[in-house]
Amino acid sequence: MTDTGRTAKPMTATPASSAETAPPLVELRNTSKTFSGIKVLKNVGFDVRPGEVHALLGENGAGKSTLIKILSGFHTPDEGGEIRVNGRPVSFSSPRDARKAGIATVYQELLLFPDMTVAENIFIGHAPRAGMGALDWNEMRRRARALLDDLDSHDLDVDARVGGLSVANRQRVEIAKALSQDARLLIMDEPTASLADADVRRLLDVVRRLRERGVAIIYISHRMPEIFALADRVTVLRDGSLIGTKDIEEVDDASLVSMMVGRSIDQLFPKVVVPIGAPVLELRKVSFKDEVQDISLTLRAGEILGIAGLVGSGRTELALTIFGITPATSGEILLNGRPVTIRSPQQARDLGIAYVPEDRGLQGLVKPQTIRENVSMALLDRISKGSIVDRVKESALARDAIARFGIRARGPEQRAGQLSGGNQQKVVLAKWVSTNPKVLIMDEPTRGIDVGAKSEIHALMCKLAGEGLAVIMISSELPEVLGMSDRIMVMNGGRMVRTFDRSEATPDVVGAAMTHAGASHAGGAA
């Protein structure tokens, strides 16, 4: 269960004693960076100590990426800025210089070669040599095995092709690759964004193990529980400026959010209560094999129905069944009181159902295409004659989407992959709202986006509900479910186990229902 928490003092990491007293391993002084006359980093001071996990927080565009690219040797700071390693000024003209200084970065998009083995990826560019300069394959495998064992990754085969590994295992290969070059500072950029809960816990254990060995870690994440579970100190950037650096014991959720966005945490969930209308969608004992079992619910116009549950509880599977990707094997679906059969996403769309999927990067967007092309994708058959797309209508849709959803972009022709996570999510939302749906299903609507963008997505959700749209919101973030839902349905083991009205839903009762498969049903059909 992922929960950002609402307590004044979340559980914090135990600071490493060496980090409390050690001088900085790496330090930035008076660091600025200007691109095309725009100052994106403004006189920032930042340091990280040996054996410390230092969290770096801020909204997209706050300057985090620029800061870590300066530390990684991709950018040089403007005149007057300085990088120090072990107290001595250094100058990086390339990532190779940073690696030689003991600085390695694990990016969200992992930089591995899928057709090469685990051992080959770990030692690419610095493999051990035998006589006459030939690669020493046995030594390379031995060293790779030792590095992985040190990360408690005994299950990884050093001869396995990286392309066949899970995201979590590829990430451990990337970390081992960094350590193979004697990295003393490891920068981790959104390392858990694509991981399941079990893999997240395993990664956090790896981070703790590295800290115990004295490795300094800069940890970038939008997930508050990870920050409080790992960090010794936290630095917040906003609009390219340093807002502050604090020991983790000095902050809580509310103060960090306020530092990041300049407003209180209450504004993250701008719930607007709107009149609830007539039933739009009804499910009567709907099942799909063993994954969705006997679900009955009623969803009304203007209502936001939150669906909570642990990973594997059946939430996404229910959405896929309603949308026709995995059609129901039994039960009945009604729209506006009339029974319907949904055997495909196209049928669902034609009936007025839209689905914003959990993984916007793989399922919601075609990143190399423009905003114009993405927004029109769900209704090409409505704006085309044969194979000829009406570009005028397509451009008008994109311009309307940019204005209506507040998409920050240069214009309709900007590629979707160039947008921030929050703006990409707005494009996916705009794509489906352009089909004029009656029911909107949003699966993890704010996963992987910063707190400011979350607030904007929540406000858009309320606006759409106010226009009469019936909304199903699936979320692993309990505060989001509690803050945005008119009613909450809890799933466990593919079944609905509890329902709650907004007035009776608390973190304790909803959390308990999520974790107890045998919880009794309450409140009738959702």
List its salient traits.
526 residues; alpha/beta; six-stranded mixed beta sheet; 18 helices; disordered N terminus; disordered C terminus
Summarize the entry for a quick read.
With 526 residues, the chain is an alpha/beta fold. The protein has 18 helices and 22 strands.
Describe the structure.
- The protein is an alpha/beta fold.
- Helix content is 32%, strand content 24%.
- The strands form five sheets. A six-stranded mixed β-sheet has the order 6-7-8-3-9-10, sandwiched between helices. The chain has a six-stranded mixed β-sheet with strand order 16-19-20-13-21-22, with helices on both faces. Strands 2-1-4-5 form a four-stranded antiparallel β-sheet, with helices on one face.
- A hairpin with a 2-residue loop joins β9 and β10.
- The two termini are 22 Å apart.
- The model is unreliable at 1-18 and 517-524 (pLDDT under 50).
Secondary structure topology:
Blueprint: H1 17-21, E1 26-35, E2 38-48, E3 53-57, H2 64-71, E4 82-85, E5 88-90, H3 95-100, E6 103-106, H4 118-122, H5 137-150, H6 167-179, E7 185-189, H7 197-212, E8 216-220, H8 224-230, E9 233-238, E10 241-247, H9 253-261, E11 279-288, E12 292-300, E13 304-308, H10 315-322, E14 330-335, E15 338-340, H11 345-351, E16 353-356, H12 360-364, H13 371-375, E17 384-385, E18 388-389, H14 391-404, H15 421-433, E19 439-443, H16 451-466, E20 470-474, H17 478-484, E21 487-492, E22 495-501, H18 507-515
Parallel strand pairs: 3-8, 3-9, 6-7, 7-8, 13-20, 13-21, 16-19, 19-20
Antiparallel strand pairs: 1-2, 1-4, 4-5, 9-10, 11-12, 11-14, 14-15, 17-18, 21-22
Helix pairs in contact: 15-16
